[in-house]
Amino acid sequence: MSPGPRTRLRRLRRRLARTVASLLTAAVLVPAAACSDPAPDGDGQKYDGEPRPGTVRVLASSELSDLRPLLEQARKDTGITVRANWTGTRDAVELIASGRTEGRYDAVWLSSNDYLRLRPEAARRITSETPLMVSPVAVGIRPEAMRRLGWNPSTVTWAGMHRAVADGRLTYGMTDPARSNSGFSALISVASALSGAQAALTDADVRAAEPKMKEFFAGQRLTSGSSGWLADAYTRRGDVDALINYESVLHSLNRDSGTGLTVVRPRDGVVTADYPLSVLSGASPDARDSVRALTAYLRTPAAQRRMTEDTFRRPVVSSVPPARSLAADPRRELPFPGTGSVADGLLAGYENKLRRPSRTVYVLDTSGSMKGERLRRLKAALDGLTGDFREREEVTLLPFGSSVKRATTHTVDPAHPEAGLDAIRADTASLTASGDTAVYSSLKDAYGRIGTDTESAFTSIVLMTDGQNTTGDTAAEFSAFYRALPAARRATPVFPIVFGDSDRSELDRVAELTGGRLFDATKDEGPGSLDAAFEEIRGYQ
Fold this sequence. Notes:
D-Maltodextrin-Binding Protein, domain 2, Rossmann fold, 3 domains, 6-stranded mixed beta sheet, 19 strands
């Protein structure tokens, strides 16, 4: 029997709990990273994270880091220093709900407080909020795709995109809704439009839209835990038609990369981020005054003008016009789900039924140097990750030493998911350490197992090694092998993990060559640990 909504929700909450655990460790070790000056404070002393007059400690959405220059100007003009810890919006909400922001942060600045309001334990920690700018979910479409489809930018709809995807005429990339607010907002936009909901989504609306949503998400060719990597992967691939993200991100991509995307806001409605700066209940009177002064500054015409011109977000002050590249015609605003159960159910449905499944080969160093504590940590990290595998996901464990030792592939069958998960756990438990380190030969083997079918699933390779290549193919030989692969097989990225004594520069070259991303696992626990690296990679699978 397929697991019910409660089982799926428990899995999602376990994932969020692991993410929060990493964030909590980060909050203890590095309470805030400076926006204007990462190292010294105004008096030349290293900032210790403690409250100070004229300093606002902010938990902020990572996408807002592009406002650092404006925040530096605010410091010069007002004397208020912003110390920000940049993180994902949904991760920040979990951190606030846990209560661990108390005493560490004075304010929170997210892309939206909508999800936060669905969590009473988080919402009650907010005493005031003031929107500072807005940016709707939008779609960036390559000019050649616009011409092929015969679309007028002002009349594109989600329904029209659905028909194009169903007919095999449109592909796109989108961030992971479980980790990115832009991805979650896009998911809500699609569900609302395809269900025909006239108000906030209900469970019945989601059920009614599922067949069309499954067809729509069959067109997704790129997924990511971050907008930055997604934009790079989109530019690199060249064979994906469109990108779904915030309007501001798409216009910034056009400016920075010259992609020439036609940015459209579907006529049947969008979810919009309003970026409220919100005061936390534990903030001191001095911090509250500083937040109010900072808010007032950021809503001045001069600040609003710079905000829209630099970041392509829309101003909230009516006297300031949006940046010239932003279309002026209005769009229907789609409401956020009214209950947490609908939001969680929508996310669980996307993860397990709607999106394309994942196919991942885990290339695992089990050479002699992994004996003892390192192998124990690898087994523990894989065991913890196993409960996070989605229904329909195909997982191949490929341990190697002097050569590939074996390769076992398991699929998480929706009818009997625990059977596949138990088999993965058993394979993990049987791992042993021996031999030399054949990194590149093992990667070549992994590409052979991925094969040429990269359209039916999100395919990726995860490489974990604690050392340098000592036998088998060289880096140059692997590079030549990869460049000779057919384009469809080159579309599979490698996500290397720096662990133990592995060579960071060597692994970084593998990531750059294949279009992947390097992850750090050099710490024993918390952010930068092997557990956290495996977990973070999930947003890219």
